[in-house]
Write a structure and sequence with these properties.
- Strands 7-3-5-6-8 form a 5-stranded antiparallel beta sheet.
- The radius of gyration is 18 Å and the shape is globular.
- By secondary structure, it is of the alpha+beta class.
- It has 5 helices and 8 strands; from the N terminus they run E-E-E-H-E-E-E-H-E-E-H-H-H.
- This is Alcohol dehydrogenase-like N-terminal domain-containing protein.
- Keywords: Metal-binding, Oxidoreductase, Zinc.
């Protein structure tokens, strides 16, 4: 058993409860021991029922939120697979990783996953799938996420933490950090040019200011 912060229904407070430790069922799966989990406005929206009827609505109750967290790999899937080892990212027990919510178990066979040059500009992942896969799930939304001691995650979506970065620092970077960094990169500015960051004191904005400074923008 493990402890988890759960929602039993919409519009009720989170409660501390006990759930079964999740089981790995895909050759891509890793079992993570969570060490830091960030709370996003999306978690509040989900708890308020704003995703009800949407593909991102919780598929089971009690629901475990959080789509931005970090922790340590404690187990690796041994599910038999016909997949080439080249298509399964290599991780080891003890690796420290950051985990974004999407895309959990993308199919790799749909139109989006097979499209070499997507119209939205986000290329297919080297592992052979798209973050826009309509068949993928989202940790913390449609499936249970990081407000728990243990979570099953997709090895294609996690990233190793650099030495010296704590889980507390890493957790918000895999959602808020990625979001604002992607926006800054799309500006295609050169060093020395100016960028305006609206809401620079917010969760994304304060990271954007730091990223822009490191990019040598004004």
């Amino acid at each position: 058993m493990m402890k988890a912060q759960v929602l039993n229904r919409y519009n009720e407070p989170y409660t501390l409860s006990e759930l079964q430790v999740p089981v790995m069922t895909s050759p891509y799966d890793l079992l993570i021991k969570v060490e830091a989990a960030a709370y996003c406005h999306t978690d509040a929206a989900c708890a308020a029922g704003m995703f009800e009827g949407h593909s991102n609505a919780p598929a089971e109750w009690p629901h475990v939120g959080c789509h931005e967290f970090a922790g340590t790999v404690v187990n690796i899937s041994k599910v038999p697979s016909s997949l080439s080892a080249l298509h399964i990212p290599s991780y080891s027990i003890g690796d420290r990783v950051g985990v974004p919510g999407r895309s959990f178990r993308p199919c790799g066979t749909c139109y989006e996953c097979q499209l070499e040059t997507p119209v939205h500009g986000l290329p297919r992942d080297p592992a052979g799938y798209s973050a826009y896969c309509p068949n993928a799930k989202n940790l913390g939304l449609s499936v249970r996420g990081g407000f728990a001691q243990y979570v099953v995650v997709d090895s294609r979506q996690v990233a190793r933490l650099p030495p010296g970065m704590s889980p507390v620092e890493a957790a918000p970077l895999v959602c808020a950090g990625l979001t604002i960094y992607s926006a800054l990169r799309s500006c295609q500015l050169n060093p020395g040019q100016r960028v305006a960051i609206i809401g620079c004191g917010g969760g994304l904005g304060h990271l954007g200011v730091q990223f822009a400074e490191r990019m040598d923008w004004k």
